Amino acid sequence: MKLHFLGAARQVTGSMFMLELEDYKILIDCGTDMERTIDYSQPAEPSKTFFPFDASLINLLILTHAHIDHSGNIPMLYREGFEGQILCTSPTADLTEILLYDSASLNLRKLKAAQGDSRKKQKKMDNLLKKGDLYLNKDVDDAIKNFVCIQFNRKFQIIDNVWITFYPAGHLLGAAHVVLEVLEEGVTKKIGFSGDIGRKDYPLHVDPVAIPEVDYLICETTYGNRVHEDIESPIESLGRIIRETCVDKPGRLIIPAFSVGRTQAVLFTLNQLIEEHNLPSIRVFTDSPLGRSSTKIYSKYLSYLNPEAKDFAKENDSLFDFDNLVFLQTEKESEAIKNYREPCIIISSSGMISGGRVEQHIANNIENSYCTILLIGFAAEGTLGRELLGGMKTLQIKTKEYRVNAQIRKIDVFSGHADQKGLIEFVRHQNPKKLKNIFLSHGEEQSMLDFKHKLEEFGFNQVILPEKNQTFDL
After folding, report:
1. What percent of the chain lies above the pLDDT cut of 70?
2. What is the pLDDT of residues 326-337, one digit of tens each?
3. Can you tell me the distance from the alpha carbon of 397 to that of 193, in angstroms, rounded to the nearest whole number?
4. Among its keywords, does the record have Chaperone (predicted)?
5. DSSP string for 325-362
6. For the whole model, what pTM was predicted?
7. Element (H, E) at 471
8. Structural domains for the chain
9. What is the CA radius of gyration of the chain?
10. pLDDT higher than threshold 90 for residue 17
């Protein structure tokens, strides 16, 4: 049995692993690599395959959760010949469907914008072809009809001698840790994949659970060398900043937030502030059609949420609906709120300020000293979010330079990832004497190195930091 590390190796995005049995290949996640480098100086190669393997030889795909850095290249897998099923939870299937169709719609707009005979258009089309991952709705259609949904905590037999169990990971609605059991030459080997590990007491989501003891563990390290700094609850942190920004003065609060997961956590917290903590009436604009679709899915799967959310929904009839909440659909509606003169809150994607409608909201308000931009999660290198957190005095958005007069704030109570303490707690449910190897993934290299040293303090001396495309015999 071989384990191939095909993505998220010494970097955060692009999660993808292959477990190769004697005559059966299982892919675990198939995510978009947002850190992929492309040599645009070289000619496009239309015949070149997208993956470093023959997709037609993959037998099964297991999906830990819906976020695009875990699911985003699934349509490409089918385009290149994969014909197998996708195992995941029901909420993951529903969230992945809307995310992939959203990506396909964006790809279509890019292609249409690059059509034409001008040199500029031809160069744009050439660059799109070099990037390669331009799947469209048909490719998504091929993917979503192959979802097979299984429940948490129930062992499911994949083929003879191979079983899978999903355990709640808490990171996102339906997110799972995965444990595979493989009977090979009379010996059962257990391989655990952490997926993305959530944090305890997070709005809406259940707490992550420990997985049984395994022989091999693949563990994410997004916050491998960081501890969440905020000691306040989400309600306390968000409520204080809203009052400082929109009540004590007539300002506006912009919250860049991922459409799936983060937006719902913020909306739920706002609803709690209104219903239970007397927050004054302030207009809240949620500027993400994808965020609205995701919110409906969260409401659909109430049974997957934590007890606090279930109780709130029972008492108030809704998790997210409150007075003065406005969902913006069209770009025209989005542009119009720059003329709204009253204090307001704008929630818009993307969370790292790397594309999406939030860029325009930042551009419209970055020079306004009455505006606060609130970062509520991790921002990768190269994003506008990381530049703002770094204290940049000016910011270039598209082709224009802006002075940063707005207040830049950061809280991490809405970060959906376990911090170093949470990761250590997850790993320490394993027996150091039984565990043959821990493979670290899904994190910046320094984060992995620091986490490795921390694990060694607890007696885990078999920690490996795989390189991309590195293979291990299990």
Report:
1. 100
2. 999 899 999 999
3. 38
4. no
5. EEEE-SHHHHHHGGG--S-EEEEES-TTSSSSTHHHHH
6. 0.94
7. strand 470-473
8. 2-225+416-473 (3.60.15.10), 234-410 (3.40.50.10890)
9. 22
10. yes
